Amino acid sequence: MRKTELLEIGCLEATKKMLKFSKKEEKKSRKQRLQKKMKMRKFEYEVSVKICKKGEILAVSFFRIKEMLAGQVQPEIVVFLNKKERTYLSYLPREAKWRTATIIKIMGYFYGSFYHCTKRDWALFRKYFDTECSRWTPLKVSSIRSIIEEFQTDILWDRIEERRRQETNEWDQVMSQIPVLPKDWERWCRKSAITQHYIFYKPERKGEGYCSRCNTRVQGILPKHNQYGICPKCRQRIQYKSKKMQKRIIHKAECTYLLQKFGTNQMVIRKFNVYAKFHQKRDFVPEISWFETRRVIVEKDFSQTAYYYGQYKDGSYRWRESLYAEYHYDFEGNKGTLYQRTLFSLNQGILKTSGLYELQKNMKMVEPETYLLYRYHCPAIEKAAKAGLKKFVIQSIHKKSRLPNHRKLIEILGINSCLLKQLVKMDGGIAGLSWLQKMKNTQKWISEDILRYFEKHNISTIDVAFIENQMSPQQIYHYLRRMEKESGLPVEKILTIWRDYLSMAKKIGENLKDSIVYRPRELERRHDEAVIALQEIDTKQRAEELREKFPNLEKVCREITPIYQSLKDEKYAVLVPQKIEDIIKEGKALHHCVGTQECYFDRISRKTSYIVFLRRQEELEKEFYTMEIEPDGNIVQKSKDYNRTGEDYEEAEPFLKKWKKNVLKKIRNQEKDPTKTQVTLWTAELSAAYKDHVVMKGGKYQGQYLSDVLKAEQEAAA
């Protein structure tokens, strides 16, 4: 449809009859409002429709009654329809814009709206769409928009189906060329794809049974239910099952791969989930079934196009191309058995430069898709696979290592031919290779036992870089073995502790060149000591900062000690901290804020309140309760670990009452009355907490206002 021709059809202005009709609707609406009869809508008709036809094109204009009354003669939208060519186009005259969206996307939904048009326009529309609506009524006219919506929706679905058809036809064309399964596929699945096999026997005839792997009767066995053994015929590991005690066995799915020639220079990797069922009714003859889940087309350069069997956009299940061709770069998670009889011929062609044939010889399970995908991105891995470096290949795939693409393998690995033979001999991985590279660079020999130990525990030169300047590989080997024997910890854990210990020792300031430091006898104990020492250093640094801010704090603590540390009984005692470090350690030990919040140190320096420690007599060095007290001995707040207060505090309350009386007595004897001034200071801080709406963020009183908690504590103590 040409846009210039569409605009000449003549549906861009409202007719005089339409304007006259809108005024008539307004009068009717005004009359109804005066009579209070109208409840739901202002107008009986909300939209007026104008229909024009030119050739095969039908133009439908939509005018709103309200807008026409306001003087707007242009339609809100004009929809041009071509039934023969099955096309449509919309025009917004007020914005002078063309839209390809459907009418419902442009105008939105209008529920229960009546449309108005002349009988001539209705007849024209009905004839164009061959509708069965013959009688002209407001309800029928409202179907104009529904018919347009249906017409546009049908066209959209036709376009969608055509796009999907083009997409699926390409897939179906590729899938139609997939070769058939080998003739011995079921037999191979039973013998090799299923890894768990059984010998079923009757209890009364224990000398003979049926082997599910070789599918024959065997004799000369001494079975016991659920025990493992060896089949005397196929020499495979089996499990004995009594036919009377076992009713059925249903195996979980096992993964297997089939590689087949595809086209001229292509190959297809087919992934199957194989299932096995054994039923007593069928005399435990295995029922083998399989379900193909994935197909990967491999090109000559090992690039891949993957397909999987799954749900399509229309809800059906079919073969479709995978958007994530490289979705599983996981060699271990998708390993499965590999059908062997097609590999030799493929190795003469497309797989000749892959290394897959050599890799799978020494492996029961492989993941060919991941390996060939890695071979596509890293061609050098072929040489490592052909050399027999199975462990190195698998680790390289896991780490997505980018190997340099040199002509010789020794140039790729950075070692010489002698060291390469040693790497192949011990089936070394990335860790073993790092030590061989170190041997070449330093020209210092490392024994095979040490290399195998490092390879076994996956210890590379990077893992011991923190100690390599102080110790040789031989010394590291002997030290790790000794620590492994003494502590019983795995080598990986010992290395972590050792690394952390030396890092802390450096911060503490110890001499890392001293063998006693970098090679300690009791590593765990020295590690714990370093942790404590590092905490003490942090405590000292924090204490120095607080001393600069509150220089008289420790002097105040010494002055109040005779008053507040004068009473003790058989169970409890109150101690006054003598140093800032004591308060910080108390806060860290009990995990509360007394050692971190400067407000407590500020109150002590101003003699507003003091911090004292409640201890048990039997454990004076162990933290019990931290208390904040007023100068008259009144306990403002108390808390043990994590700001909690338990029943053990109630047991100590009788002692604390005696202690408070003793404090007041000491104060009177010294003829000092600090209550007036100090309570005023404390009351001021309490008022500030109330004014700032400070909320407790943890502990027993979480969510409550600090002022309410302090007031309740003060009243309870009094």
Question: What is the gist of this entry?
Answer:
With 718 residues, the protein is of the alpha+beta class.
Structural account:
It is a single chain. β15 and β16 form a beta hairpin. The termini are far apart. 43% of the residues lie in helices and 18% in strands. It is an alpha+beta fold. α22 packs across α24 and α26 runs antiparallel to α27. It comes from [Clostridium] nexile.
Could you name the ranges where pLDDT drops below 50 across 5 or more consecutive residues?
A: 672-681
Strand percent estimate: 15-25%
The global form is flat
Tell me, rounded to a whole number, the average pLDDT. Answer: 85
List keywords for this structure.
flat, 4 domains, 718 residues, alpha+beta, six-stranded mixed beta sheet, 22 strands
Layout of SSEs?
Blueprint: H1 3-6, H2 16-35, E1 47-54, E2 57-64, H3 65-69, E3 77-82, E4 87-92, E5 97-99, H4 103-107, E6 115-116, H5 119-129, H6 138-141, H7 143-175, H8 185-193, E7 198-202, E8 205-211, E9 216-219, E10 228-230, E11 237-242, E12 248-250, E13 254-262, E14 266-279, E15 287-298, E16 304-311, E17 317-321, E18 337-338, H9 343-347, H10 356-361, H11 368-377, H12 381-386, H13 390-399, H14 409-413, H15 417-425, H16 430-442, H17 448-456, H18 473-487, H19 491-508, H20 515-518, H21 523-549, H22 553-564, E19 572-575, H23 580-590, H24 598-605, E20 610-616, E21 625-629, E22 635-639, H25 647-669, H26 675-692, H27 706-717
Parallel strand pairs: 1-6, 7-11, 13-18
Antiparallel strand pairs: 1-2, 2-3, 3-4, 4-5, 7-8, 8-9, 10-11, 12-14, 13-14, 14-15, 15-16, 16-17, 19-20, 20-21, 21-22
Helix pairs in contact: 16-17, 19-21, 21-23, 22-24, 26-27
InterPro entries: PcfJ (IPR025586)
Protein name: PcfJ-like protein
Organism: [Clostridium] nexile
